[in-house]
Design brief:
The protein is of the alpha/beta class. The protein folds into 3 domains: 4-166 and 221-394, Alpha-Beta Barrel (TIM Barrel), CATH 3.20.20; 403-604, Rossmann fold (3-Layer(aba) Sandwich), CATH 3.40.50.880; 616-670, Golgi alpha-mannosidase II (Immunoglobulin-like, Sandwich), CATH 2.60.40.1180. Helix content is 31%, strand content 18%. The strands form 6 sheets. Strands 5-4-3-2-1-9-8-7-6 form a 9-stranded parallel β-sheet. It has a 7-stranded mixed β-sheet with strand order 11-10-12-13-20-19-18, with helices on both faces. A 4-stranded antiparallel β-sheet has the order 21-22-27-24, with helices on one face.
Length: 677
């Protein structure tokens, strides 16, 4: 049986292309112009109704379907399919007026007002009842509409309201804790409540970790993150159950936010979706934002278990919510789109179709800008539609990776709680540095959680595992013993799933597999740097490492420049069972980290996707439709790549070499792709 997204692509006749469509913002006569221009641009799928609750249900108990009836009919008549949203991400004014206690509350006790989106407490029964009623009505009315090809559950779960500290949330938290721990003594042990005299004798004594006099209990905070993510997941499951009940057979998804959303564990939502979709927006301050894009694309593919996925939102140019909203350069939107496609997306969507003229997002770029069709963005949107149509054979092919990079929301939450050794140790910084080393070497990886099966991978990279559950530690140890190659970053293996330090010395659960013991963690002052024996410089962090079987491949310099761990191991390698464990005991520079990853890859028998110049991204997709090599030139100069094939985009190929213009994208159909090691 085909994957739901592959079936969707078949219905669409190729790669999905389009964006959020919000006709309620425009007069009726504009709708006809919209569908005409959508067809001109090659749009075949739009998301409708994301923020339309107040239109669909203007008063309690009263539904008005007139707008949606007309718009869905118009789209269908013009051959444009619909991803219909449940509209529950923006409760209408009447709801918050009728249920003022359903508005979320901050940790300091401030109840937030109506006036934006996601103004609701995820645990409030009034919101659940109102949202479920809307979803049931929507599904019953449109479940068999010929335009409908997919359901869009909510929108960006928890983007603005994941952590609510109201009394309703407090009660729901206590219920969640009872189910998790069963006995108060078990909870007290897990949270270490004998510290600072916090021991509980009644469940009703427990509140959310609201603002208090000093440092909050870290075990309580960690569990509140877990509870809050689970509360949103419960709402997702409720909406999904209604859609499947009233409109069975139509696939559903929700748009995850990847690394843009710390508060919600996207991996937990993935099994509850028929296909995986993601929103991705470039950090404007990052000149190498395309690497962040690749990381999130590989993470989305990890959520999809290697199957095709859908890019639900990205931007044609600038967004509106960063301090400085940098416009994309000519050709950058195309490169961004092709990079997502290269890494497994079978659909390229945007927020939004027509740029808003009012509201908070009127300065967010769109497929059809304020200036209309006589604009650079519109011309690029039309050209991208044609490019995607020419790549229809890519649909259903997959990206194969022999390397896994571990990413864990529980670890992210725990690492960045209060009172860690260094507040400067940020999880995404660590992940990005390790991922960038892989990207620079053009080694494709899957970004997956620690609990996923590791046996398909020849190497596993763990940029940070400060929090490491016992079962995950056992799985990593077993993986190396059986012949795998594991590389671990600093400050890892330290605490268990309760955020309690493992006795016996650092790095706790990983001491044996890494063949070392860390005597002391040595965080650095902001201005301090450390020299390493390979001539590079490290920052922020050092560790006093005692080898217990490992070999140092790089050391801290043995003079004053080596910092507090002078002369000691900075990078180690340890043969364990049939495999190898590596450890990096500092925040190493890019070249040093790249060399570590190169050595791990060499030991594991891995190689780059293609031999390409620096700054050229190479990714391969293979399947029944053939093998396609994507080459994305992120440099400002033309490049000559020593690979050949049938050029589908931007290529001049003589069979053995391919020339790619500055900022260009080449897609080669390969007759016999090199074996991926």
């Amino acid at each position: 049986m085909n994957h739901p997204l592959t079936e969707l692509n078949r219905r669409l006749g190729g790669i999905a292309y389009g964006g959020d469509y919000n006709p309620e913002q425009w007069p009726r006569e504009t709708w006809h112009e919209d569908v005409r221009l959508m067809r001109e641009a090659g749009v075949n799928l739009v998301t409708v109704g994301v923020f339309s609750w107040s239109r669909l249900q203007p008063r309690p108990g009263t539904y008005d379907w007139s707008l949606l009836d007309e718009v869905l009919g118009l789209l269908h008549e013009n051959g444009i399919a619909v991803d219909l949203a449940t509209a529950t991400a923006a409760p209408p004014p009447w709801f918050t007026r009728r249920h003022p206690d359903a508005r979320p509350v901050t940790a300091s006790g401030t109840r937030l007002s109506h006036g934006s989106r996601q103004v609701f407490c995820p645990s409030h029964p009034a919101y659940a009842a109102a949202a479920d009623a809307l979803v049931a009505q929507l599904a019953a009315r449109y479940g068999d509409h010929p335009a409908l090809v997919m359901w869009h559950v909510h929108n960006e779960w928890g983007n603005h309201n994941a952590l609510c500290y109201c009394d309703v949330s407090a009660s729901a938290f206590r219920t969640w804790l009872r189910e998790r721990y069963r006995e108060l003594d078990t909870l007290n042990e897990a949270w270490g409540t004998d510290f600072w005299g916090q021991r509980y004798s009644d469940w009703e004594e427990i509140d959310p970790p609201r603002e208090t006099t000093a440092l909050r209990n870290p075990g309580q905070e960690l569990d509140y993150h877990r509870f809050s993510s689970d509360a949103l997941l419960d709402r997702h499951r409720a909406e999904a159950a209604l859609l499947r009940r009233f409109a069975p057979g139509t696939p559903l998804t929700t748009n995850h936010l990847g690394t843009l959303e710390k508060k919600v564990d996207a991996y937990a939502f993935a099994p509850e979706c028929d296909l995986i979709s993601v929103d991705h927006y470039l950090p404007a301050a990052d000149p190498d934002g395309h690497i962040d894009l690749a990381l999130n694309a590989d993470m989305t593919r990890g959520m999809a278990a290697g199957r095709p996925w859908l890019l639900m939102e990205h931007s044609t140019s600038a967004v509106n919510w960063q301090p400085v909203n940098v416009a994309k350069r000519p050709g950058e939107m195309r490169r961004n789109s092709m990079a997502h496609l290269a890494r497994g997306a079978d659909g390229i969507m945007f927020f939004q179709w027509r740029q808003s003229r009012a509201g908070a997002e009127k300065w967010h770029s769109a497929m059809l800008p304020h200036g209309g069709t006589d604009t650079r963005i519109w011309r690029e949107v039309r050209a991208l539609g044609a490019d995607l149509a020419s790549l229809a054979d890519v649909v259903g092919t997959r990206v194969r990776a022999d390397v896994a990079l571990l990413f864990d929301w529980n670890n992210w939450w725990a690492l960045e709680l209060q009172a860690r050794p260094s507040a400067r140790t940020r999880y995404l910084d660590l992940v990005r540095e390790w991922y960038e080393a892989l990207w620079a070497l053009n080694i494709t990886c899957d970004v997956i959680p620690p609990g996923q099966d590791l046996t398909p991978y020849k190497a596993v990279l763990a940029p940070n595992l400060y929090l490491l559950a016992d079962e995950h530690a056992d799985a990593l140890t077993r993986y190396v013993r059986q012949g795998g190659h594991l590389a671990v970053g600093c400050f890892s293996g330290v605490v268990d799933a309760r955020d309690q330090v493992r006795p016996g010395g650092y790095p706790g659960a990983l001491r044996e597999v890494l063949g070392l013991r860390v005597d002391e963690y040595l965080p650095l002052r902001t201005e301090d740097t450390i020299r390493l024996s390979d001539g590079s410089v490290a920052v922020q962090w050092a560790e006093r490492v005692e080898p217990r079987g490992c070999t140092a491949t790089v050391r801290f310099a043995d003079d004053a420049g080596g910092g507090p761990a002078r002369g000691g191991p900075a990078v180690t390698r340890h043969a364990y069972g049939a495999g190898t464990g590596w450890y990096v005991a500092t925040r190493a520079s890019g070249p040093t980290l790249r060399e570590v990853v190169r050595q791990v890859a060499e030991t594991a028998g891995l190689r780059s996707v293609a031999d390409v110049p620096e700054g050229v991204e190479a990714v391969r997709r293979t399947g029944p439709g053939g093998s396609f090599l994507f080459l994305i030139n992120h440099t400002d100069g033309d490049v000559d790549v020593p690979v050949g094939g049938l050029g589908l985009l931007d290529t001049v190929s003589d069979g053995s070499h391919t020339k790619i213009p500055a900022g260009g994208v080449a897609v080669l159909r390969e007759e016999r792709p090199p074996r991926q090691a």
